[in-house]
Amino acid sequence: MSLFGIGAVGATGSDHETNAAASTASDGGDEPPDLTVEDVALSYGDDDPVVETDKLVVPAGEVTALVGPNGSGKSTLLKAMDAELNPDRGAVRFDGRRVDEYGTSELATRLGLLSQENTAPDSTTVRELVTYGRYPHRGFFEGLSETDEAAIDRAIGRVGIGHLADRNVGDLSGGQRQLAWLAMVFAQETDALLLDEPTTYLDLHHQLRVLDAARELNRERGVTVCVVLHDIGQAARFADNLIALEDGTPYEWGPPDEVITPDLLAEVFGVEAEVGFGSEGPTIVPRRAIDDD
Amino acid sequence: MASETGEASLGLRDALSWVDTPLVTVCVGSLAVVLAAGLVQVSFGTFTMPLSAVWGAVFDPIVWTNPQVLLRLFLGEGLGTEAAGLLGLSTAPVDLPKETLIVWQIRMPRVVVAVLVGANLAVSGAVFQAVTRNELASPYILGVSSGAGLAILLTLIVFAELAFMLPLIAAGGGAVAFALVYAIAWKGGTTPVRLVLAGVIVSTVFGSLQTALFFFADDLGVVQTAIAWTTGSLTGVDWEQVRMALPWTLVTVPVTLVGARQLNVLLLGERTARSLGMSVERVRFALSGVAVLAAGTAIAVAGIVGFVGLIVPHMVRQLVGSDYKRLVVGSAFAGPALVALADVGARLALSPAQLPVGILTGLIGGPYFLYLMRRQGALGEL
């Protein structure tokens, strides 16, 4: 990876490149941005709000997981963070500014999103797919610059799919494909990343590959990550912070060892479970499902 | 990775790095087909002459060494002479032998119009397939053709004095039909099947309206012209049609090529395109507009030639992959090949009687559509 970093500096050395190289090496000088949700109500059309929350913070430079049962509003909240859904009231701020005030392409250079369902034409090569991540950085008539090439190589290297770069997306397994999509979002080189259920439907190996790559990006470049996860045990091990949603309102948020309690598992997830404390955060041993009344 | 070569040559190589062997094969093969079909096409006509005379006329050095002759054919007598003057070329009148005159003046426009129609329909279909993310989309299936056809018939029968604006009028009719189809298919998003069904609905209604218009035609001649329009025919086209379609083609094909990167990103899905910073609705609207204009241009000069917009992008995709830069270029070459070839069939199938070319493309396209349906259980989302 550092090999590609050096390649980028050796090129023409525009501002952007130098920044990227510096932050690759030592996390640069810029503070990473945070995402804040302030007194927000979210709804689809004229229906009742799906999500209502007071203040929530996705802290800068950390990994935050949104957890909760199906239909608790995790993905809806994520949509508000990406300005796909305008809140009925309140505001979502990215780096202090309301997300709906950003231009679409301006936001895309700073905030990346990996959506839940991804489709690309089967004959697209992995490298072509990753190249689309540079879309917001390129002018209408501009070709790929050396900065772009370097970012693409870095992303492919970081996710560890160099050996797949020339394969067609249609020939890959589901897990490999998800890694390719992750590399595309990495190539966008944003300050913050939203990942919408990136591990759902993947085998364990690829689940860990996806999460490890995201974690590594966070550690090395200080990228703020907010990820929707299905598996609360996985979220507890992986994230610095959890936001547990129940019926569209946050039940609790904070570091995993404060958030995860037997009460939370019973009331939010409907599961009777034992919570232990390992060296890498809380461990959860589910015992039985609690019947709804 | 670092390259020692100069910036300029690197830039050029990068700019053309997407051109690959399959694409070159498609383009060269298509050119060969167009050339062969063109030679066959100009060999037939009311005035019988031996093949050697025809081919001698096609490659007549008088035509090829006097650029003002070609300019006059493509641009019209007055404009062609003016253009030749502006370019510093000779504007002297050229006397052509009889055979050359017949081949170039009367028979050649049919081949040129076939090329323009094929390019426009194929490019239009390619764009519609990306914009709707639907392998089955084409101006014909989406009702654009029927809307354009209706607008043209209305113009011919009711507002005859507006005939010079046919491509724009056809595009307008096509746009209205496309908007209707989209509105009917919309239910918090659309699916390929709903779009096709909505296309059937709109085409049926507009088709009926077209037939109804026949009753308002004053004489049988108009009805016959009208029928030729609705089936798509290249019989009797003239340089006039070339001059009508050429300027629009020079807009639609390059603009689509420039938009190829947007089309590629659109194919990743609305949410991803948006998260990459694209104004999805604006891009989709603009590119649909170009596709409607391309379809309108083709329909204005040749009527509704069906299925070209469906088959060509699909076949080209099989050969060059779904990258839209390659696909648009490949379609712009393969479309003319298909129409030129079908038009030869239309002329020779029941010789001496001539069929409308739309019947031939329909005969090729229908079964191809069936093959698509069979091959893919589920109708194709791109």
TrEMBL record, chain A:
InterPro entries recorded: AAA+_ATPase, ABC_transporter-like_ATP-bd, ABC_transporter-like_CS, P-loop_NTPase, Siderophore_ABC-ATPase
Gene3D superfamilies: P-loop containing nucleotide triphosphate hydrolases
Catalytic activity: an R-cob(III)alamin(out) + ATP + H2O = an R-cob(III)alamin(in) + ADP + phosphate + H(+)
One example of a Gene Ontology biological process annotation: monoatomic ion transport
GO cellular component terms, A-Z: plasma membrane
Membrane topology summary: Peripheral membrane protein
Domain ABC transporter: 35-272
Any single Pfam family the record assigns to this protein: ABC_tran
Region (Disordered): 12-36
GO molecular function: ABC-type vitamin B12 transporter activity; ATP binding; ATP hydrolysis activity
Main location group: membrane
Compartments in which it is found: Cell membrane
Keyword line: ATP-binding, Cell membrane, Ion transport, Iron, Membrane, Nucleotide-binding, Transport
Enzyme Commission number(s): 7.6.2.8
Quaternary organization: The complex is composed of two ATP-binding proteins (BtuD), two transmembrane proteins (BtuC) and a solute-binding protein (BtuF).
Cited function: Required for corrinoid utilization. Probably part of the ABC transporter complex BtuCDF involved in cobalamin (vitamin B12) import. Probably responsible for energy coupling to the transport system.
Name of the molecule in the record: Cobalamin import ATP-binding protein BtuD
Species: Halolamina pelagica
UniProtKB/TrEMBL annotation, chain B:
Localisation per UniProt entry: Cell membrane
Any one Gene Ontology cellular component term annotated for this protein: plasma membrane
Keyword set, alphabetical order: Cell membrane, Membrane, Transmembrane, Transmembrane helix, Transport
Molecular function per GO: transmembrane transporter activity
Membrane topology of the entry: Multi-pass membrane protein
Transport among keywords: yes
Superkingdom to which the source organism belongs: Archaea
CDD domains found in the cross-reference section: TM_ABC_iron-siderophores_like
Spans through the membrane: 23-44, 111-128, 140-159, 165-183, 195-217, 285-312, 354-373
Alphabetized Gene3D superfamilies for the sequence: ABC transporter involved in vitamin B12 uptake, BtuC (1.10.3470.10)
Keyword Isomerase among UniProt keywords: no
Protein's job: Required for corrinoid utilization. Probably part of the ABC transporter complex BtuCDF involved in cobalamin (vitamin B12) import. Probably involved in the translocation of the substrate across the membrane.
Subunit-level organization: The complex is composed of two ATP-binding proteins (BtuD), two transmembrane proteins (BtuC) and a solute-binding protein (BtuF).
Recorded family membership: Belongs to the binding-protein-dependent transport system permease family. FecCD subfamily.
Name of the featured protein: Cobalamin import system permease protein BtuC
Protein species of origin: Halolamina pelagica
